[in-house]
Amino acid sequence: MTGDEACWKALADAQGGVVLTAQAAGRGWSRQRLGRLFARQGWTRLRPGAWLEPGRSAGERELLWAQQLVRPELVVSHWAATRLHGAETDVGRTDFIGCGRAKGAVLHAVPLEPDEVTSVAGLRATAVARTMADLLRSGPRDEALVAVESALSWRHGPGAARGSRRAPLTTLDAIGRALTRAPTLRGARQAVWWLALADPRSGSPVETLARLRLYDAGLYPECQVPLRTPAGRRVYPDFFFRPQGLVVEVEGYAWHGSRAEHQRDVIRFNDLSACPEVCRILRYTTADVRERPQVMIHEIRQALAGR
């Protein structure tokens, strides 16, 4: 590798794998010469004037880098910031806070204080609490609360080492303070109402959605309440209707990826069945919660009525 090639690789490594041809002049190159070099070496053209070094895939972070290098004043926000921070969301939209337009992204022209901006993998993004506050202000409710509860709780997932869980990213109080800093923004009142529905004990996105479906149906079980087996082991059902002794469990796909996880689930079910307060257990899958919530609610109502 020549000295010039090493120079551009070092710059790319410092910028998420992305280099702008506009940076050529500062290093004594013309844009045309740099473009020819990159084309010859197999760099990927992400957008006009932005190139991705060979060997890297053009994922979301690389595209965010390209946007932010072209317009450094933009701050990654909302759903894109949620994914950067490692909170769970199914929303694939790319958001920035800034003015004007940005190709392939949604811009939000809202005020932002300097201490509400942080660095994530080198990118400038809204801090976790501000990100969650923005989601609650803009909605939709269910998707926003999935992300908020993921940020509030211990979670398995990409941000955690194998066999472990990542720690909570923020707290309810921090999100509440972020909301009070801009009480006149559109959606501020709804955000306070929705934040009141958030439960840091939630263990998965499907659990969040199931609880919201129950609330919408006027059903308010205890969530993750500790019960004890006759042997003294502690177990936490997802939802517990204590007067009827009814436990409702929702099963996310991620919990059954190995024999060990399946064995753990069997032990958990047996422990719940052994608890003296428990008379009946209903179990639902992610598909039940997402695609057939009315069936789930009907069956729970039937069980609560003793049928």
Question: Which short descriptors sum up this protein?
Answer:
single chain; 307 residues; alpha+beta; Endonuclease, Chain A; three-stranded antiparallel beta sheet; elongated; Restrct_endonuc-II-like
Shape: elongated
What is the count of distinct domains?
Answer: 3
Order of strands in the sheet with most strands: 9-12-13-14
Radius of gyration, taken over Cα atoms and rounded to an integer in Å: 24 Å
Structural class: alpha+beta
**Sequence of secondary-structure elements:** HEHEEHEHEEEEHHHHHEEEEEHEHH
Stretches with pLDDT under 50, minimum 5 residues: none
**Largest sheet descriptor:** 4 strands, mixed
Averaged pLDDT: 93
Query: Helical percent range?
Result: 40-55%
Q: State the distance separating the first and last CA atoms.
A: 75 Å
List the helices and strands and how they pair.
Layout: H1 3-14, E1 18-20, H2 31-41, E2 44-47, E3 50-52, H3 60-70, E4 75-77, H4 78-85, E5 95-97, E6 106-108, E7 117-120, E8 123-126, H5 128-138, H6 141-152, H7 172-180, H8 188-195, H9 205-216, E9 222-223, E10 227-228, E11 234-235, E12 239-241, E13 246-251, H10 259-274, E14 280-285, H11 286-291, H12 293-304
Parallel strand pairs: 5-6, 13-14
Antiparallel strand pairs: 1-3, 2-3, 4-5, 7-8, 9-12, 10-11, 12-13
Helix pairs in contact: 4-5, 5-6, 5-7, 5-8, 6-9, 7-8
Organism: Streptomyces olivoverticillatus
InterPro entries: Restrct_endonuc-II-like (IPR011335)
Protein name: DUF559 domain-containing protein
